[in-house]
Amino acid sequence: MALVKTALALVFTATTTLSVLQISSAAVYKVGDSAGWTTIGNVDYKLWAATKTFQIGDIIHFEYNSQFHNVMRVTHPMYKACNASAPLATYTTGNDSITITNRGHHFFFCGVPGHCQAGQKVDINVLRTTQMAPTPSALPSPPSVPAAKVPGPSPSNAVSLKSLKSLLWKLVLSMVVFAGFVSSAAA
Ligand SMILES: *[C@@H]1O[C@H](CO)[C@@H](O)[C@H](O)[C@H]1NC(C)=O
Ligand SMILES: *[C@@H]1O[C@H](CO)[C@@H](O)[C@H](O)[C@H]1NC(C)=O
């Protein structure tokens, strides 16, 4: 019986650790950091995005003066051409939070004429290598922000947290099997 208790305690510990990792994996990123979303100061949004490892569930936060700027989510061709004629979505509050719900590229720019050309554009890329082990809480959530499909190399920027998670999942599963085995042996 002591073995069963130990096994169950281990399962509990591993599950709790997983939930903590799950919560801590969602981050809020303010685009441009302290500069915010602007054409002033030549903020390098490409560089800004390159220093982040975006994941599903992260919140992309655009903060700007809504009198002078906005946020448009666009396709890759529109992004490349700074074509604001048919955005997929437009945000105008000056304090917009967009939750990333799927992998791939998410293209945004300011739709005010000239601003995208001036560099007020950002590509939020959620790498395919950041795929996490399925969890009950992370299962069916319909994508509300579909990723634009872009062919290209996916950087092999493996995240150690992810491997830790999958390791923990394997641990949980083996503990469950072990607990079942011990309790049937004890019975
Ligand atoms: C902008 O995009 C629209 C819709 O996709 C297209 O009809 C138009 O030709 C594009 N304009 C330019 C300048 O590329
Ligand atoms: C933006 O909105 C959040 C809540 O969604 C609020 O906490 C924050 O103070 C707002 N920031 C500005 C600059 O209005």
From TrEMBL:
InterPro entries: Cupredoxin (IPR008972), Phytocyanin-like (IPR039391), Phytocyanin_dom (IPR003245)
Signal peptide: 1-26
Region (Disordered): 133-152
Domain Phytocyanin stretches: 27-128
Assigned keywords, A-Z: Signal
Protein name (record): Phytocyanin domain-containing protein
